[in-house]
Amino acid sequence: MNKKSILGLLLFSCIVIALMFLGTSIMIRKGSDPNNNYVQQEADKGDIHDSDELVENANELDKGAPESQSIGVVEEEWLSADNTSQDLDVSDQTNTSDSESEDIENSDNTEQISDQITEQDTEQPREDVTEQPEDSEVLIQDDSPTSDIEDSNTDNGEDIITDSFNTNSSEDTEESSQEETQTEEALGDKIVKLPDMQLITNCNEVDYMQYVPEMKFDSKIEVALDITNPNLDIDARSAILFDVKTRKVIYYKDPVVPVFPASTSKLLTALVALDMCMEEEEVTVGDELDLVAWDSTVAGLRKGRVLSIRNLIEGMLVPSGNDAAYVIAAYVGRKSLNNENANLDEAIPEFIRLMNNKAKSLGAINSCFKTPDGYDAIGQYTTAYDMGMIGLAAAESETIREVSKKTSARNVFIDGHDVTWYTTNSLIKKNSGRYYSYCKGLKTGTSEMAGRCLISLGQKDGKEVLSVIMDSSSSGRWEDSIKLLNYGLGL
Question: For residues 436 and 139, which has the higher predicted lDDT (pLDDT)?
């Protein structure tokens, strides 16, 4: 072999060795970065929550905040936002874009999100966030018990256990086991377990309708709906309009079909609290905060805070704080049991019992409430007619009227803590683009199962009407409500 051939072979060998070395280095580098997928998942998670924050500098954190706080709190959102140019409220248990809602419904991603938030709750407690601009009801990934965002956080991960639910009582076949596993993942897998309270984090994986009985249509409902029903174009799945003074139905659309209450049920929670307590009664926030779903809107309450029943009602109805609802439930439940040391697994079910008794006493015969905040749960359901009965009772409460019409509510707690909350109701916010001057409250509600809901009190020239919109769209609930209120008020 001549010299040129030898040199050629050597050169070729060097090139091959260099390429192999380069390829090996690249493979090693990729293999050593286990965070690649995690980073992408985190980016996706950020998109889920951030895409609906159509506001400027909303919810900016301030770790060194003074005691005087301004907390812009918004309600739980799970549904896809319509995201029209005017619909900046992207509101109250949660909302996402269509593709993003698929991610948030994925149980694995949900578990990763809640785990991350639990770590952040423990490591970086937050004291303050700034007010969000008007008409900005959004879901964010909340990361501390004092954060300001629809339907809450856990203070630590030690109390968190898996909540399971058996979907099949038949033989223990491989197929049924797989179905049960999927259902367990779709239920509240990061919620402290309570008897008969199973939160739904992914309604696509739970056959929740099998737990909803056939609705009753008694003579009282039949008589109430025996009207000449006007032809109104309403987007909502179910709706009803009442004259408040006569309690007569003015309009209805499928008022006795099962729907889900979301945070509109907080009106019932407030009614029970006001039945059982004086507004000035002192309440100390406790471990009930651990029961609040991680993705809820909250009023920023912290364990050890001392506040009044009135403070709690404002924190529940104005910013739709699920934490405030649970604090009320724990306190009132113990009071009903005449045992201030009762465990949460005694106090909360007692409060739920009071809620259902109150609902039945108001004529809401087709409802079953499972949570004090309205978060989706197995066996929880209502109808537009029933929520109208509850809404009419709420309209008779001066306290609920006064609180629910506030666009902002500054509260100084008994322990001296100073906080300001902001409403989730765009109809009463003048700069929202949805403002309706004749609206005087009452309550918004949103969840994956409930859709967008709104119970509104309209008032003009001595005439009062109550509009109930259940399972509408992001923009539809405002438009539907205005349409019904206009009709009822003769506009």
Answer: 436
Longest Cα–Cα distance of the chain, Å, equals 112
In this prediction, residue 7 carries a pLDDT of: 74
Handedness of CA 202, 206, 211, 215 (dihedral sign): positive
Q: Find the helix packing angle between 322-337 and 266-276, rounded to 10°.
A: 40
Range of the domain at 122: 40-162
**Is residue 210, in this structure, part of any structural domain at all?**
no
Residue 129, pLDDT score: 35
Q: What is the dihedral of CA 255, 259, 264, 266, to 10 degrees?
A: 120
Q: Whole-angstrom Cα distance, residue 226 to residue 258?
A: 20
pTM for the structure as a whole: 0.67
Tokens of 57: 């500098």
* Average pLDDT score over the chain: 75
> 470: which strand partners?
238
Amino acid, single-letter form, for residue 252? Y
pLDDT of residue 188: 40
Whether residue 52 is contained in a domain is answered as yes
Q: How many CA atoms are closer than 13 Å to the CA of 114, on its beta-carbon side? A: 29
Total number of domains in the chain: 1
Strands, DSSP E only, in 46-140?
77-80, 94-96
In a domain, 62, yes or no: yes
Task: Evaluate whether residue 53 is within a structural domain.
Answer: yes
Residue 203 half-sphere exposure toward CB, CA atoms < 13 A: 20
